[in-house]
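Model: Ready when you are.
Researcher: Fold this.
Model:
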Amino acid sequence: MTPPSARDPIRIMLVDDHVERSASVEEKLRDSGFEVISRLPSATGLLFQIEQHQPDLVLIDIQSPGRDVLESLSVVNHHNPRPVVMFSHEEDPAFIEQAVDAGVTAYLMDELNPDRVKPVIDLAIAQFKSYQSLRKALDDARTKLASQSVIEEAKQLLMAQRGISEDKAHKTLRTLSMDTNQSLPEAARSVINILGKPSNNAR
C-alpha cells in the first residue's frame, strides 16, 4: 500500500452487514476526515473489491466472517498489505490467530461503534506502520546476511584456488565489482559460478 500524503484523506472500504449501522459509521468516518470509497453489505467478492477500489484501510464488521474472508485478506496481505480492522463476536483463539496471520491489524471482539471508530482506526494505522517498519528491517537484515555469506564464499574460493590472502581476495572482488558495474554480492556470485564449477577433467 502506498501511504497517502499528509493532505490526502485516508480512503476506507467499509464492509458491514448491518445496513443502518454502516450508514451511521460512514457518516462518522466522513465527519472525522476519512473518505469512504466503498460500503459493502457483505464480504462476497472481497478480494475483487479491494483490488478494484484500492483502499488505504479495510474496516470489517460482519456477523460470521468465514474462511473465504481470511483467504482474501491473506492474498492482499501478501501482495499489497494495508491496515485491516475487524470487529467480530468470534472468540475462538484459533480463528483469531488465523485472522492475524491473514493480515488483520486490529481484531476487536465487539460491535462496531460509530462514536469510537476513529481512535480504533488511528491505532490500527499506527500499528500497521510499526509492523511494516519492523518487517522491512528484518528483510534488510536477511538480505545483508545472505549477501555477506555469498561474499565470504567467493573469497574462500579465490583464496583456495589462487593462493592469495583474504585481504587480496576482497580487493579482487571489489575490483571485479567496479569493472563489471555490479554490486559486490553480484560480483561474488559471478566468481562462485566460475570458480565453483567442477573442472572438466574431474571424474
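Researcher: Now this one.
Model:
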Amino acid sequence: MDDTVALKLLQTGNTMIPNLILKNYVKLGMNAEEFVFLLELKAALKDGNQALDLQTIAQIMNKDEAQIYQLLHGLIEKGIISLTSVVDDQGRNSDQYSLEPLYKKTLKLLRDQMQAKQIQAHQQTRNDVFARIEQEFGHPLSSFDMEMIDSWLNEDHYSPEIVILALKEAVLSGVYNLKYMDKILLAWEKKGIKTAADVQRQRTKFRHQGQSQRKQGNRAKPKIPLNKWSE
C-alpha cells in the first residue's frame, strides 16, 4: 500500500466523542468493552444512517453476533442508548437507535459534579468564616455561635465577604461578640449594603458628611454691627 492510498483511508472520516464522555464512561455505567462498542455504534449511525450492520461491528471487535447483541441490549437496559420502532410512509417497520439518553446522562453527571463542587466550596467558605471569627475573638465558637453564623449565611443570605467586613467593624470598635456583628449586618441590610464596595461607599459618604459638618461649625459667626441702634 502506497502513501496515497493510506492517506485516503485516513481521510475517510472521524468519529467524534465528547471528552466528557471519554473521561467519564465508567461513571456513566459502561465498561471498556461497552465503550468500544458504543464508538462503533456511533460511527455506524453517523449522518443519520439507521441501517445498523451488527455483523460488521462483530468482525471489527472480533466477536460473534450473539456477543454484539448482548452488548447492544446491555446498553439499552442501562439507559445509554434507546431503540424505537417507527413506521415509514409505506407502512414498513424499522428500528431507530439514538444516543440521546447517553447525552442526557452526561449532562446530569456534569450538573451533579458542578453541584458537588459548589457544595464543597460553600463548606470551605463556611469553615473559613468560622476560623476567622475564632481568630479575631480569641476563643472557640460555641454551638450557638455557629448556628447564628449559619443563619447569616443560609437564611439571611449574607455573603461571607460582608460577614467578614462586619467582623472587622466590630474589632475596630473593640466589641468582640456576634450580637454586635448582627446589629451591623442588620443596619447594612436596611441601607442596601451588600458588598465591600457598598461598605466603602458608605464610609466615604460618612467621612464627607463629617468633614462638611466640621466646616460649617468652624465658619466665623456673623459680625455684629457697631452702630448704636438706639441713636
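Researcher: Key takeaway?
Model: The two ends are 130 Å apart (CA to CA).
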